[in-house]
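2024-03-11 09:14:02 INFO worker-7 job=invfold-0412 stage=load source=structure_tokens
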């Protein structure tokens, strides 16, 4: 009996009471301390513009969110979800504006779709300019966030109207950043799995993959969440490095980016797991610049917690898949410059596109108001300001 007791005691001593958590995936160069917000340098020579000012007293709209951007045939297009009621209700509409002078002035509000079925809402989405055609992919749902899906549209530039291609992606998929072309010629679009298709409290990241240049035919691929992820709202972004695809997603249980990697052009994925990069729980925007640098637009700092300010951009050295430098695009206080300014406000849900040596970043600004009562704003950043040493 004494020998048996000794054996059991020895085994218990050698066996951990809890399984060890996996080490954070190194997507930040941890040879460099991640700076606090006040210590992050601010970008110079950034031009700021207002796409759509929050102006409920005059136009009746309350909710605005999810700026999408695209440069198409010399014009800049900006879309967003707009609602005169509450967020995620059937009053949501997919609207846009057009600029012919690089974002300095904008057209009147224009409509992509307000939903032509009973209880159908069409909200924010993303653009793609390809083969001379402008496409829009918008998140949509019925009633209050039921049967979430993606609908596709193509612009008839002669009439200024959008051709409706209907539902093109199901399974709760909501697009979060613009499609990127893969080596094999297909397009891959990052998003979120929302609604009843997702597990309780874990709403995984997902991608949609086209069949070549047919932008009305997409396959849905859900990215699994690691076993230790118990809360997640997987709004995601990605970049493509050969056959490898990196997906960064919003966490719900902490203030780090979640990372998943595909080695086969998005067909299968490692689970989304915690990385070593701080990122406030909000939609990120990522991509690869023409310089070869990877970038992440978000709210990234050592000490921000869940605060969606300042708006930052992390960049890598050319060709590397690890971020090594962070810049502030703008802080909450923004005196004497276009855009709303306050001691504490939210700068969130960014999107980004490169054009003519600049990175165009669209984002929401709640002006210090609660909820997503946002203005849509724009920052135009010279690429030469984004060098990582």
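2024-03-11 09:14:09 INFO worker-7 stage=emit residues=389
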């Amino acid at each position: 009996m004494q020998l048996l007791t000794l054996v059991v005691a020895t085994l218990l001593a050698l066996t951990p009471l809890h399984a060890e958590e996996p080490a954070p995936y190194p997507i930040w160069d941890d040879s460099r301390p991640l700076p606090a917000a006040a210590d992050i340098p601010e970008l110079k020579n950034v031009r700021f513009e207002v796409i759509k000012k929050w102006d409920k007293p005059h136009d009746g709209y309350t909710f605005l969110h999810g700026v999408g951007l695209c440069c198409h045939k010399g014009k800049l297009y900006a879309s967003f979800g707009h609602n005169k009621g509450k967020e995620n209700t059937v009053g949501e509409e997919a609207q846009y504006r057009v600029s012919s002078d690089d974002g300095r002035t904008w057209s009147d509000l224009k409509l992509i779709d307000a939903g032509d079925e009973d209880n159908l809402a069409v909200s924010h989405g993303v653009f793609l300019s390809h083969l001379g055609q402008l496409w829009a992919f918008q998140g949509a749902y019925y009633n209050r966030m039921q049967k979430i899906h993606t609908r596709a549209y193509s612009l008839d530039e002669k009439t200024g109207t959008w051709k409706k291609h209907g539902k093109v992606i199901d399974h709760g998929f909501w697009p979060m950043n613009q499609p990127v072309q893969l080596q094999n010629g297909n397009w891959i679009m990052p998003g979120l799995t929302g609604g009843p298709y997702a597990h309780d409290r874990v709403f995984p990241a997902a991608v949609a993959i086209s069949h070549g240049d047919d932008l009305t035919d997409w396959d849905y691929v859900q990215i699994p969440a690691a076993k230790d992820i118990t809360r997640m709202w997987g709004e995601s972004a990605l970049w493509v490095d050969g056959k490898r695809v990196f997906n960064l997603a919003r966490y719900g249980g902490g203030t780090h980016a979640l990372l998943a990697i595909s080695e086969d052009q998005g067909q299968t994925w490692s689970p989304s797991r915690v990385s070593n990069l701080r990122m406030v729980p909000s939609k990120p925007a990522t991509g690869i610049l023409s310089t070869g640098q990877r970038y992440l637009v978000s709210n990234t700092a050592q000490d921000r917690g869940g605060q969606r300010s300042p708006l930052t951009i992390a960049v890598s050295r050319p060709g590397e898949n690890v971020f090594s430098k962070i810049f502030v695009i703008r802080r909450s206080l923004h005196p004497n410059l276009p855009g709303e300014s306050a001691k504490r406000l939210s700068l969130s849900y960014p999107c980004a596109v490169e054009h003519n040596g600049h990175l165009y970043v669209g984002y929401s600004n709640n002006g210090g108001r609660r909820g997503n009562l946002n203005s849509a704003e724009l920052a135009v950043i010279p690429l030469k300001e984004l060098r990582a040493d």
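2024-03-11 09:14:09 INFO worker-7 stage=report msg="The helical segments are 2-14, 56-59."
2024-03-11 09:14:10 INFO worker-7 job finished
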